[in-house]
Specification:
single chain, alpha+beta, five-stranded mixed sheet
Length: about 425
């Protein structure tokens, strides 16, 4: 009888008549399940291999199950152990006899293939380290192939590893826009001599040289993360050079607490806000940041995607308020979440400026801060990093996120509610 041996086939196979039965496996020629009747009447089962040896005589070998039985039990035992008593109750061990002969089918197939390889005398080609073997098992073949890949990657340059990692990212469904940015930043900031350097010879000083050329914190983060991907790819294939993700994590700008952000007090904040108000190019990002600090409550992501129809009570026909008049808007965002803001004249002027500039540059748009990109015309901006990083650099301020700066600003406005 021939069939594909599975767990159920092996466990359910029986000997109804006769003293012995052979069920051949259709996956590996010569491998199968032997069933026989013992002298005292019980039924025995075993995996076996029937083939012709080197002398041409028929040979039969039987699979010894004790090692495979323990491996399967040990693997399943821990799943059984941790699946029990999630509330901390008593746990029980998986019974050793719960593993059947059918559970060992894949282990037996692997043994059979190794035995066939021994008989066929498969030899290693190339590396002298492996020529001492006269045959190659599946485990040895896997180790041999991994060693070939490791030595090949060790001969690759930094640029070559970059190409391989980018190709892998494409197969993982990463957006083409993000991949293009990785490629562009790498080509722009990595010197040609470093691109040609072997990946195993790249050290921390080389990485520091690359990161020092990044003018903004966003590009620095992208470069450091991408270089970390290259190192991780090499380590996954056994290539351990002079770099590691742990050592690279220490590179980059020093971490600054929000309380140490603005040292010039009120004048420093006024200089920051004036810089944002005077920015002409990428005014969407600048005015978005200005409104973010004026509103203070909503997250920056909500400010970037703010729409005019969310601002109930905002009247563009009233460019100025009367002296002492209070003016409020209700900003509705999310799932009906309503926030009421008292508008200062600065807030009012910021929204009017955003409306006028959008009307002149883009036309009518439902968004307060529409994207200037020709590919996303009329859609909201998705980042303020360019203007923010440039602002911090020009004003010689520490590199922190807008969220951290907002925390520092709130502590400046309300020192008792947000103590430093």
């Amino acid at each position: 009888m021939k069939t594909l041996l599975t767990q159920s086939v092996v466990d359910e196979a029986d000997l109804s008549i006769g003293t012995e039965r052979w069920i051949a496996d259709t996956k590996i020629k010569g491998f199968g399940l032997r069933i026989w009747r013992r002298s005292y009447g019980t039924i025995g089962k075993a995996y076996a291999l029937r083939f012709k040896g080197e002398n041409g005589h028929p040979t039969r070998k039987t699979f010894e199950t004790y090692r495979a039985h323990y491996d399967v039990w040990d693997e399943r035992h821990w799943d059984h152990w941790f699946d029990q008593a999630p509330d901390g109750g008593e746990r029980t061990r998986l019974p050793y006899d719960s593993i059947t002969l059918g559970d060992l089918i894949e282990h037996a197939r692997r043994w059979a293939q190794d035995e066939i390889d021994k008989v066929r005398g498969r030899k290693f080609i190339g590396d002298a380290e492996y020529k001492r073997f006269t045959f190659m098992t599946l485990d040895e073949e896997e180790a041999y192939q991994q060693d070939i890949i490791r030595k090949r990657i060790e001969s690759y340059s930094l640029a070559r590893v970059r190409d391989i990692v980018i190709l892998n990212l494409k197969t993982q469904g990463i957006s083409q826009q993000y991949i293009d940015r990785l490629d562009k930043v790498f080509d722009h900031y990595v010197p040609e001599d470093l691109k040609a350097k072997l990946i195993i010879n790249v050290d921390l000083e080389d990485v520091r040289q690359i990161l020092d050329q990044a003018p903004s914190i966003s590009n620095l983060k992208i470069l450091r993360g991408f270089l970390g991907r290259l190192v991780e790819f090499c380590q996954q294939h056994g290539v351990h050079g002079k770099l590691s993700r742990y050592r690279m994590a220490k590179l980059g700008p020093p971490k600054v607490k929000s309380v140490d952000f603005m040292t010039d007090g009120e004048q420093g904040w006024q200089d920051l806000f004036q810089y944002l108000e005077d920015t002409d190019d990428l005014w969407q990002q600048a005015l978005c940041l200005r409104f973010y600090f004026l509103a203070a409550t909503p997250p920056l992501s909500k400010v970037m995607s703010a729409r005019w129809d969310q601002m109930k009570g905002f009247d563009f026909l009233r460019p100025k308020r009367n002296e002492g008049e209070r003016f409020f808007i209700d900003w509705i965002y999310g799932t009906g979440w309503r926030s009421t803001y008292r508008l200062s004249q600065t807030t009012f002027d910021t929204l009017i400026k955003a409306r006028d500039r959008a009307s002149n540059c883009i036309g009518d748009s439902p968004y307060c801060f529409p994207s200037p990109s020709k590919h996303h015309i009329g859609k909201p901006i998705t980042s303020v990093s360019v203007v923010w990083d440039r602002c911090l650099s020009d004003l010689k301020l520490p590199l922190i996120s807008p969220k951290q700066a907002m925390n520092s600003y709130l502590a400046h406005l309300y020192p008792t509610r947000f103590p430093r």
